[in-house]
Amino acid sequence: MKWKEKIRPFLSFSMREKRGILLWVCLMVVIILFPLVRNKLFPPDWPSAEELAEEIRNFEDNLKPETGMAFQQEKGENSGRAVKLFPFNPNENLYDDWLALGLTPRQARTADNYLKSGGAFRVPADLKKIYGLDSGRYALLEPYIRIPQGTGEGGADVSGAEPGGRKASLAGAAPLELNTADSADLQVLPGVGPVLASRLVRYRLLIGGFYSIDQVGEVYGLDDTLIAGWGGRVWIDSTRIRKMDLNRAGFQELLRHPYLDYYHTRALVQYRESQGKFSNLEEIRRNRLLPDSIYRRIAPYLEIGHRKP
């Protein structure tokens, strides 16, 4: 039939074309089967579902607000936010401190910008300058306001006295040791309110303690300028950091440290499993298990323990 003769040229292939089709089919089969064969020969070292669930629970626990304080529920724009009332000097508050006291983000920005522009709260009633702060919220905050006598422009205490305030004077006091100070102790530092103090303590627990003042800048909200303002008021006892035994620590324990990601942890664990144990920390650098920048940060938290035969 004529139609068969018309389509026959499209259905017939030369020897060269047949070889090309066969090669293409073989290549597709290899591409499809390669992941299956690779996973059989080299199974990925993924954490189990139980380990992942534990990590998620730990992460969620770190996000929970501190308990044991008076919590109040604010209506309106801040509905659903946990409000913590505490004695405070408004001239030392940061943005997060205003939020913790129940102000809306807009009100907190207004107060923060007012202080940054050189303004100061000289008497409690000056808080009414905050745009949008209603009389009900002010009445709630008023009993907790602590403004030192002689507070001048920019919030500086020109008298040197701070009776009953949240920030105690550090003149003549022993410097704070950052690896043992609790959140209440940390709030005597300039620019540190309850929010920043809580963050610092949680991060310190997470990494195992500080060995350098530079690490404090890793805490969200603590910048170099703020830390430099502490001067000689703080010090660090690096002997108090919590170390991990590199020959005994499990995958999840190592992975939980902020300085190690999944691939760094896998490299350490796989090397240990193949070699039996680490004899010293220099093996990490010699075998290039970690980048130098990561090795220098994590090394103070590692120690070598020898397994019993």
Model description:
This protein is mainly α. It folds into 3 domains: 65-167, Orthogonal Bundle (DNA polymerase, domain 1); 169-241, AF1531-like domain (DNA polymerase, domain 1, Orthogonal Bundle); 244-303. Helix content is 42%, strand content 5%. The chain has helices at 2-11, 15-41, 49-63, 95-100, 105-116, 135-141, 183-186, 194-207, 224-228, 251-255, 262-275, 282-286, 292-298; strands at residues 71-73, 82-84, 176-177, 234-235, 244-245, 302-303. It has a two-stranded antiparallel ribbon with strand order 1-2. The protein has a two-stranded parallel ribbon with strand order 3-4. It has a two-stranded parallel sheet with strand order 5-6. Strand 1 and strand 2 form a beta hairpin. The model is unreliable at 65-77 and 152-169 (pLDDT under 50).
Strand count, sense and barrel status of the largest sheet are: 2 strands, antiparallel
What is the CATH topology assignment of the largest domain?
DNA polymerase, domain 1
Spatial extent as radius of gyration: 31 Å
Mean pLDDT: 77
